[in-house]
Amino acid sequence: MEKVDRFYKLEGGYCNSVTQYSRxxxxxxxxxxxxxxxxxxxxxxxxxxxxxxxxxxxxxxTIRMVESGCEYVRITAPSxxxxxNLANIKKELRLRGYxxxxxxxxxxxxxxxxxxxxxxxxxxVNPGNYADKKRFENLEYTTAAYQAELDRxxxxxxxxxxxxxxxxxxxxxxxxxxxxxxxxxxxYGDTPRGMVExxxxxxxxxxxxxxxxxxxxxxxxxxxxxxQAYRLLVETMAKEGMNYPLHLGVTEAGDGEDGRIKSAVxxxxxxxxxxxxxxxxxxxxxxxxxxxxxRALADRYERKFDSSQLAASGSQEVVNNTxxxxxxxxxxITSPVQQIGGHYPPVVMVDVxxxxxxxxxxxxxxxxxxxxxxxxxxxxxxxxxxxxxxxELPSFSFPGNLKQVYNYQTWLQLKDKHxxxxxxxxxxxxxxxxxDATLNFVGINxxxxxxxxxxxxxxxxxxxxxILTTSQDMGMQQQRAFFVALQQQNxxxxxxxxxxxxxxxxxxxxxxxxxxxxxxxxxxFGDGVWINAPASIGLALVNTTSFGILQATRTRIxxxxxxxxxxxxxxxxxLQETTQYIRSKTDHLKGIKIAIMGxxxxxxxxxxxxxxxxxxxxxxKITLYRGKxxxxxxxxxxxxxxxxxxIIKEDGNWIETVLN
Length: 660
Description:
- There is one protein chain.
- The chain is of the alpha/beta class.
- The chain folds into three domains: 29-305, Alpha-Beta Barrel (TIM Barrel), CATH 3.20.20.20; 347-552, Alpha-Beta Barrel (TIM Barrel), CATH 3.20.20; 561-650, Sulfite Reductase Hemoprotein, domain 1 (2-Layer Sandwich), CATH 3.30.413.10.
- A hairpin with a 4-residue loop joins β12 and β13 (376-379).
- α2 packs parallel to α3 (110-116).
């Protein structure tokens, strides 16, 4: 097979367009009877959590995963015995009429990979630990010494490539931010560029042997790092004439709302860029719950896909001409207006026009808990910053730090305008004389503005904040184009991004909002978020989703973050139960990141992005980390959480819970 297959070269950057949706065309890779990439739909996959030596248990779970929507199923093979048992698992599945392609997940063990490649349809190898070292050592290499290491890896990796070619087995080269080798870390640092080069070394080795049946992943628990790494990968591959399909995933995303929002931020941002050929959502839940989330994300973009959107070479927009760096986070520079914009964290705005405005208790879901006896509000760490009342007038006094926003004509009629501010249409703002002396909101539809509008609407006024809307179901690109236009004209007005969702349930709202708003925040765009949802959704979910998106994009930290893996056959304790137990004792520690890992494969590396780590190292044994540093080894499980809390206390990061 020749190297270039249905491929056009990007003239720069990482995607076809940053201002309209256009899917990046990759080469097609055959995985069993289900091809990936090219013009195929986005494929869905997940990973078993059973012991691979438990044949019937793994078969039963695989069937549940297939029934839930998985098109590929990955199974861990930590040693050659598990790799060989994949044959029994495959046989039992085929006897039951399930021909789902199986993927062997390999870490550290080339002999297991070579055995599995003769059995399953695909193998996943991690360049950071397949033939490389991870001891957290800072190494120095001469050019000759570095090449010698590559030659050693090539020799160790070549047998697997030959087997894959002989058996028609596909391969995923899966880089993980948490397990970059000491060699890569020493040369490139703990960076997206290091992740990309780790994969590119293995890709080049495969191509040197004329093996192209590859897909690539760049996983990280930090969504900013993950997005930057995938974008850099595409740019790097394009420069070398490659277009391998991409496996998307946020590793160790967690569980519940947090895991879904974090996954949607990372995966959705890339899908909106037109990138991604298969998805795995990594939740600390049973694997059959992952596929529906992945499918819901994929479906939003599958609806927009049209082969006519695959631009010919030379007609696509060049990302390098834009005003921001898609490979390195930098928040857009703005002039602050009353703690909106500038260096202040993004604000949260909520529509309360459907609420009973005679009852102060309706603010409780927004983080303002009213005490009638004391006639005051107690604020939570997720108390929203602004509420939109439209033309509705409340009959009680709002909390002093909660800004109220009214439609302009209603605002004019207010006798007491303290902490109350007007929302103008663009036409109103350009023509009326009476405005607030300190803060004015201007609504602009990203689909309808023009450069002339920006020039005449006084957006440079030091009291102005834009509310940026879109009437498009998938309007992220239009909103991003507005931000680019502001940067091109050096207009530093703060912008709150508003998205309205209709006919959605709670899960759909979380995934859609996290994808749309997360994509902009990841690129440094947005000084606030406003999610408008059906009344049936409830204010509590709207508010927590807003804060969850800011947390997942690392733009505003309002709670503890848990980096917990989804479990697999290597896991040494009940991850779901343990994660919930640790959460119950530590979820009041605002701003602390705690990693909970079932085994050592990604554990120590992921500590680099966490403040503390709880990692299984043997039956009933836990090793505790401070960052990447081992603090206590082989702690008995019953006392491990207490020991972790003591470490947090020693660092001065513990606070006692306060009952209101």
